[in-house]
Structures are given as structure tokens and as C-alpha cells.
Amino acid sequence: MKIRIDINMKKIIFSLLFISFLAFSWGQEVISGLNVNPQLIKNRLTEKASFSEHEPVHLPFIDDFSNYDVYPSEKLWIDKNAFINNTYCVNPPTVGVATLDALNQFGEIYSTMQATATPADTLTSRPIRLDTLFTPNYRPINIEDSIYFSFFFQPGGGMGEPWALLGDKPESNDSLLLEFGYKTGEWVIGEIIEEFIIIEDFLEVGDLIESPCEPDTYITIEENLFPEDTLWFVCDTIMIPEMVWEMVWHTKGMSLQELYDETGQYFKQVLIPITDEKYLNAGFQFRFRNYASMGNNSLPGWLGNIDQWNIDYVVLDINRSEADTLYKDVAFVNSAPTILKKYQQMPWNQFKGFQTEELTDTLRMKLTNLDDITKNTSFNYYVYEDNGNLVY
Questions:
Q1: Coil, helix or strand for 3?
Q2: Which of 53, 301, 323, 338 could pair with 32 as two cysteines, CB 3.0-4.6 Å apart?
Q3: Residue 349: its pLDDT value, please?
């Protein structure tokens, strides 16, 4: 369907303001957080922005972030701001966490970051069919089904000696929060697609100009335009269902040492009951958000990736309770170790001929049992070539 929109053209005049900055020199080197994420930068060229209506998922919703990295799985999440990794966390429930920090999906610091706490990353679920149970029996979901949402969280920064720290701890004015969202039934503007033309020749009232939105469509000029004027056109408007977001949980920034001293745990589990029927619809969503602050911008190295939070083992399901804190799961805690004695990797010409000296004779893996019942567990090692051929 084509819609003719009358556009009131106005000249846009840009003025440039030049500001001189006083440069400070510092007498010593400083250590600061990375101001980019190399892994996300590497993936930027393969990422394409898109808008789509996301297919809802069914209960149970479970993600322990263990079988993929860098970006959240599109099967469960709709955005890519959180960083999936196993390097910013200490003793997670299972290998792999979602880290919320001050970097966007391309590994760059958000341009809105400032000294005060500012919204940074968001991790948003796909729509969830919280109105219907599909297995084992197809039936409506109701409040009596005892629906609980749970997750584990850890403030970033690590703990212990300075050389053992991982990232940066959130300050007391920073925060991590969880929001539940539901559709109101109304439609709102989700995206406006615009194009512009820079005027090259003088145009007076009554002249025609071709629309950049639709070829062979011309619009009558209603105001004199001069060279280098900019003329904007609204080409399309995308409507989306209106979502209302409500904060259901939050915590202020702290260090991992403070969390451990308070709870005796490296990750703290949170359980939240869903008791409001407005959430029992076909488009229920939840999202994690963090607020981060860059600190004092008069100091060297103030601009860096800071205020990390780690999230793990997200579960949403029925037939749960506040005592539902255990899981029938035995999992790896860390990534597979290197087979070398002293290094993570080394050049082939350095390794060749010194296999006996360089290869370790023992590989140690840390596992976790999330249940209170002893599990008899075994595992095997496999070695593959780059082409996928099994070596050992």
C-alpha cells in the first residue's frame, strides 16, 4: 500500500562550534580497562542490522550459555549487546556466562557513557508463550501453575590479588536490573525510515523534485531552497506492538569479595515468582540491563570497559517454588585447558622436536554438581585437526 505524505520542507542550517581543549601531560603510566572488545570487533564485519518480528519460544526457557560464545543465541535472545564468554567470570555454575558491561555489540564503548551511572547493555529474551503449555499436554497456563523465573549473577572484577582480577567491579552507584515486559495490545512506531537530498541548484516554490523514497514520484516544492540545503523525506514507518516494561528486581554495584563475604558464594541465585496474570500472554519477555559509570574524566585512562556483571543459568518454567534451587546437572566450570606445560599456544617450529618437553602429562578439568545428590560422572578427551579429522 502506498501512502502519499505531504512534507513541509525546511532548511537545516548547521553551525560549527570549535572548542579548544587543554591537553594534560602525565608523568606516569596508568592501567585501565580495554576500550574495545577484540572478539566483538572481529565479528562486526559479519553482522547486519535488521528488524523482524521474533517467533515466540515455549516453556521451559533455559540457557546456561555453555555451548556458544561471543553473541547470545538467536534461538532465545533478540539482541546482541551481552558478551558470551568464559573469561570474565570466577567459578560460574556452568562454563560460559553472559557479561553485561559498557561495550556495545560491536565491542565499542557506548557513546552515551559518562561519569554518572548510565544505561549500557541489554539482554532481551525472545517473546515467550506464557499463555499456553505445549508439552507434555496442550493446555492454558494459569497462576496456579507456580511459575518461577531464576538466574545466577556475579559482579565483575574478580577477587584476590591485583594480578588475579578479571575486568572491573561495578561501583555502588552502578546497578544490574531485571524487567518483565508484556504487550498492551496497542501499536506504536518502532522505526522511521528516512532519506535525504542535498540541494545542488536553487529551487523555487512550484518546482518538482523526485522523491528518494519512490522512483518516478515527484513532490512540489513549497518553499524556496538553496544549494547545500538538506531536504528530508519520511519513506516508511514500521509499527510494532507496544511493550510495557516493569522492573521486578535490581541490585546495586559491589565487588565479588563483598558478595562472597555476604553469601559464601561466587554466584548468587535469584528466584522470582510470576503472580500477575497480565504476564500470562503470548508475548511475555524479560530483559537484563546494567547501568555503568565511567568515573572521573579528568583522570588518565578513565575511558575503558568497566562495571561488568556476569549472568548464568537462566530458567523460566512452571511447577517450581522458592526452594527450587537445585538442578539435575553436572557441568564443566572452565574451558578445556591447554595441552602445553607452560603456554596456551606456541609456533609449530618451536614445538616440533620438543613434544616431550612441551606437552603436559596431566589435564585437569573442574566440574560442578548443581544437585545435592552425588553423581557418578566420567568424560573423555578428543583431539581434532582444523579440518575436523579426529586425531585422538
A1: coil
A2: 301
A3: 92
How confident is residue 297, by pLDDT bands cut at 50, 70 and 90? low
CB–CB of 100/175 below 8 Å? no
Indicate the domain borders of the chain: 38-187+240-323, 326-392
Q: Give the number of residues written for the chain.
A: 392
Alpha-carbon gap, residue 201 to 221, rounded angstroms: 13
**Mean local confidence (pLDDT), 368-380:** 88
Closest CA to 169 of 89, 254, 84, 99: 254
Phi, psi of 42 (to 5 degrees): -60, -35
Contact assessment for residue 308 and residue 157, using Cβ atoms and an 8 Å cutoff: yes
Secondary structure in 3-state letters for 230-242: EEEEEEEEEEEEE
Q: How sure is the predictor about 383, in pLDDT bands with cuts at 50, 70 and 90?
A: confident
Helix (H, G, I), strand (E, B) or coil at 125: strand
Which CA distances in Å does 296 have to 114, 117, 241? 9, 12, 40
Q: How far apart are the first and last CA of the chain?
A: 61
Element holding 149 (H helix, E strand): strand 147-155
Please give the CATH topology (third level) of the domain spanning 38-187+240-323. Answer: Jelly Rolls (2.60.120)
Q: Which residue has cell 594480578?
A: 163
CA atoms of 333 and 64, how far apart (whole Å): 11
> Collapsing DSSP states into helix, strand and coil, what is residue 267?
coil
Percentage of residues of the chain with pLDDT beyond 70: 84
**Among candidates 96, 101, 94, 75, which has minimal Cα distance to 84?**
96
